[in-house]
């Protein structure tokens, strides 16, 4: 019972982060289940079954608060679901072999996202234009495949890429990624059930993660609507950098060269820089709000 309560709390916390930053539910939950001794395929299957419910609740909540760009969902959901189905059926050691390469790419993308939103001029960012469909479809296929073989990847791949485009408001990036993830979870779950049957899938674990995630979904959708775009983007970008840096530092080849203390220092430095960047953009947003409030009414209306 204690394990199930802990899983429920992890599901709640993971969905709170995922629903407000567009990633981390699968990665967080998968990490915990792996430490509990489950096989990688069983872990991914358990997480994706839970995500059918959590992503449905999250998508509905984001729709309620107006956080979804349905054009993005239309282009990404089905290709992502098909790729997740294929990824579930080919989950082997190759998935682990691809992890360092994907983590390195995501790390660079996270750095770009943070840099892009930190260097904005002294005005709030405007978001215009559309991400072309011929880019959204392959993005969805890569993200869906990585999500199935890694137990989490739809958000870490899709969210920073859409944020980096600068064309979609961050809250709509998060809402669209979360809403389309429902189809991805369906595809991955169907693939795992076809490949594994019911063996290795711990239904109590699924229910515990599901309940925690459903409770957190509407709270996260409400929070993301309140966050300023720059704060949301730097928060998400910092999370991408930190999680992928941790993945790269845990690789055997790196671990053999760097002592554990050095890896810990690097992660602490990244966390400190992330906190400093968030503090800076929060102060910048507050300063701009104060400046706008002090403008004459005629200028504000203009």
Report on the architecture of this protein.
By secondary structure, the chain is mainly α. The chain has one domain. Helix content is 83%, strand content 0%. The protein contains 13 helices and no strands. The longest helix has 35 residues, at 260-294. The protein starts with a helix and ends with a helix. The chain crosses the membrane at residues 29-50, 70-88, 100-118, 203-224, 231-251, 257-282. One of its GO terms (cellular component) is plasma membrane. Pfam families: TauE (PF01925). Keywords: Cell membrane, Membrane, Transmembrane, Transmembrane helix. InterPro entries: TM_pro_TauE-like, TSUP/Inactive_protease-like.
What's the multimeric state? single chain
Assign an overall shape: globular
The tally of strands reads 0
Uncertain residue ranges: 298-302
Major sheet description: none
First-to-last CA distance: 60 Å
H and E order: HHHHHHHHHHHHH
Kindly state the mean pLDDT as a whole number?
78
Look at the helices and sheets and give the structural class. mainly alpha
> How many structural units, i.e. domains?
1
The portion of residues assigned to helices is over 70%
Beta-strand share of residues: under 5%
How many H/I helices?
Answer: 13
InterPro entries: TM_pro_TauE-like, TSUP/Inactive_protease-like
Transmembrane segments: 29-50, 70-88, 100-118, 203-224, 231-251, 257-282
Subcellular location: Cell membrane; Membrane
Protein name: Probable membrane transporter protein
